[in-house]
Amino acid sequence: MPHSIVIFGASGDLTQRKLIPALYQLHRKGRLPDDTRVVGFSRTKFTHDEWRASLTESTQKFAGDNFDAESWGEFAQKIFYHPGDIGQAEDFAELDKMLVELEGDGESERVYYLSTAPRFYGPAAEMLGKSGMADESNGPRRVVIEKPFGTDGETASKLNAVVHSHFAEHQVYRIDHYLGKETVQNLMVLRFANSIFEPIWNRNYINHVQITVAEEVDIGSRAGYYETAGIIRDMFQNHILQLMMITAMEAPVKYAADPVRDEKVKVLQAVRPMTPEMLTADTFRGQYDGYLQEKDVAPDSQTATFAAMKLWIDNWRWQGVPFYLRSGKAMSCRTTQIVIRFRRPPHMLFENTSRNCEANQLVIQVQPAEGIQMHFQTKVPDQGMRFRQTDLDFRYDREFRGVMPEAYERLLLDALEGDASLFARADEVEAAWSICDPILQHWQNENQPPVYKYERGFWGPMESTEWMRETGREWFDTCPVLH
Ligand SMILES: NC(=O)C1=CN([C@@H]2O[C@H](COP(=O)(O)OP(=O)(O)OC[C@H]3O[C@@H](n4cnc5c(N)ncnc54)[C@H](OP(=O)(O)O)[C@@H]3O)[C@@H](O)[C@H]2O)C=CC1
Ligand SMILES: O=C1O[C@H](COP(=O)(O)O)[C@@H](O)[C@H](O)[C@H]1O
C-alpha cells in the first residue's frame, strides 16, 4: 500500500535537523515501506526541486558521515512539496488532491506530522478533519503532534478535545523524543527482560531514585520560547516524567501501546499531590548567571533554567521511596542519568571499615555515555577486610559500536507502522500537567521559592546540593567519561 508522510512545517528547523535526516536514514537502512513518499507543507514558495535542494544541503550537514550522494539521490525522488497555509481550507483541499495523485487510486496509509509552531496544532488538526483527510475509510490516517502539548493542563485538555473532534485517539501520536532514545527503551528491557532486578526494584531494597537531565548548553537564541516555557514546561512535563514513569511502572501485560501506557499513567496517578508546604519544601528553582543578559530576556525575569524536586509515588511498590528529579541548562556537562540508590546492608560485619561502605547503586546512563553501571563493594586484596567501590560497566559504544540511531528514526518508523507504544496518550499528557501545574502556580507567587542563582558549569545552585544533603543524601554529580 502507498505510504505518505506529510510534514507541516516543512521549511522549519526541526524538519531540516531531525525529521528529514531520520527519514533518510530509514531509507538507507531499507526500513521505509515500499512506495513511501515525503510531502512538505509550509507557506514558503518552494518548488519540489527547490525543497529537495535545500534538504540536500541540510541533510549533508546533519547526517554527517551517514550521508552518501547515491542513496540521497534515490531518497530525494521520494520528496515532494506543496506550498500552503494552515489557515486556508483550499490549501488542504489541494494538498489532498496532490496526495491522491501521488498515491494513485485505492487505499493508502498517511502520517501527518505537525512540526509547526504549537499554536497551529489545533487548527491543523481541524483543517485535516474538515477536509476529510482524517477519514480512515481509505486507509489509516495518523497525526503526529510535536511538543509542547499545551502550556498547562487546561490548554492540553482543550487541544485534546479539538484533536479528538477530528481524530480518534488511536490515530493520535504525541511525540516525546526521549522515548525514541535507545537507552530509554533499554530501561524497559533491563527491567522486564531480566529476572534479577524485579525482586529488588521496590521500597524494600531501594532507598531513593535520582533522575538528572543536565545540559551544558544554555538557552542559545531561544529566549522567545524559553521565557514563557522555563524548565518545567520544557523538560519536566515531558522528558523527565517519561523517564520517571518507565523507571517506576509495573510490568505491562504485553508490549503494546495501551498496556504500556496504562501502566505509565498509573504511576502519574499515584504521585502524591503537593500541599503548599511540600511545594515550598520539595521544589527548587534556579537560574544560571548571565541568563538575564541573554537576548530577549526580561531584565527581571524569574524564569527557571534549573529545577529540582522530590516526588512521592504512593503505591505498594514505592511507598516511602523519594524520587529526586532535576534538570538545568548551562550545567557542568551534558548527562542524562537515572540513579537507583539501594539501601545499605542492614548489619555491617566489617566494623573498622563501615564508614566507607557506600550503598549499592545502579546508574543508567541515558546519554551521552549510553550504558549501565552497577556500583558495588569489593575486597581490596591483601589489606585485611578493607574494601572499596568498583563497577560492573556496560557501555553501548563498546558492545554495539556505531549503531546508535537517532531517536526520531525509531519514532517515525513506529508512526508509519501504527505502533503508538512510544507515544504519549491523551490522559498521560494531562496527568503529567496535573503534576506540573501546581508547581508553576506556586512559583508565580513572588519568591516562592526564591530563584537561586548558579554559576555556569556547575550542578545548579549550591542550595540544591545543601537541600539534598539535609536529607542525608548526595546528588550523583558525575560527568560521564566518553571514549
Ligand atoms: N527545533 C527543535 O529542535 C524542536 C522543535 N520542537 C517543536 O517542533 C515544532 C517546530 O519547531 P521548529 O521547526 O523549531 O520551528 P520553526 O519555527 O523553525 O518552523 C515552523 C514551521 O512552521 C511553518 N509555518 C508557520 N506558520 C505557518 C502557517 N500559517 N501555515 C503553514 N506553515 C506555517 C513555517 O514555515 P513557513 O514560514 O514557510 O510557513 C516553518 O516551516 C515546534 O512546535 C517546536 O516546539 C520540539 C522539539 C525540538
Ligand atoms: O525538548 C527539548 O529537548 C532538548 C534536549 O534534548 P536532548 O535529546 O538533546 O537531550 C532541550 O535542549 C530543549 O530545550 C528541549 O526543548
Summarize the structure.
Helix content is 37%, strand content 20%.
Word description of this protein:
This protein is α/β, with parallel strands linked by helices and 483 residues long. The protein has two domains: 3-146, 3-Layer(aba) Sandwich (Rossmann fold), CATH 3.40.50.720; 179-406 and 424-469, Dihydrodipicolinate Reductase, domain 2, CATH 3.30.360. Helices cover 37% and strands 20% of the residues. It has helices spanning 13-28, 48-63, 69-76, 89-103, 121-130, 153-164, 182-192, 223-248, 257-270, 276-282, 396-399, 407-417, 426-444, 462-469, and strands spanning 3-8, 36-42, 79-83, 109-114, 141-145, 172-174, 206-214, 283-288, 306-312, 322-328, 335-342, 361-367, 371-379, 387-395, 451-454. Helix 8 (223-248) crosses helix 9. The longest helix has 26 residues, at 223-248. The mean pLDDT is 96. The structure holds NADPH dihydro-nicotinamide-adenine-dinucleotide phosphate (NDP) and ligand LXAUTJHC. This is Glucose-6-phosphate 1-dehydrogenase.
Radius of gyration: 24 Å
Strand content: 15-25%
Overall geometry comes to: globular
Cα separation of the termini: 44 Å
Overall pLDDT confidence: 96
Bound molecule kinds, no repeats: NADPH dihydro-nicotinamide-adenine-dinucleotide phosphate, the ligand O=C1O[C@H](COP(=O)(O)O)[C@@H](O)[C@H](O)[C@H]1O
Number of strands: 15
CATH topology of the largest domain: Dihydrodipicolinate Reductase, domain 2
CATH superfamily of the largest domain: Dihydrodipicolinate Reductase, domain 2
Biggest sheet architecture: 9 strands, mixed
Structural class, by secondary structure, is alpha/beta
Helix fraction, binned, reads: 25-40%
Order of helices and strands: EHEHHEHEHEHEHEHHHEEEEEEEHHHEH
User: What number of domains?
Assistant: 2
Question: In terms of per-residue confidence, which ranges show pLDDT below 50 for 5 or more consecutive residues?
Answer: none
CATH architectural grouping of the largest domain: 2-Layer Sandwich
Major sheet: order of its strands?
A: 14-13-12-11-7-10-9-8-15
Active site: 239
EC number: 1.1.1.49
Keywords: Carbohydrate metabolism, Glucose metabolism, NADP, Oxidoreductase
Function: Catalyzes the oxidation of glucose 6-phosphate to 6-phosphogluconolactone.
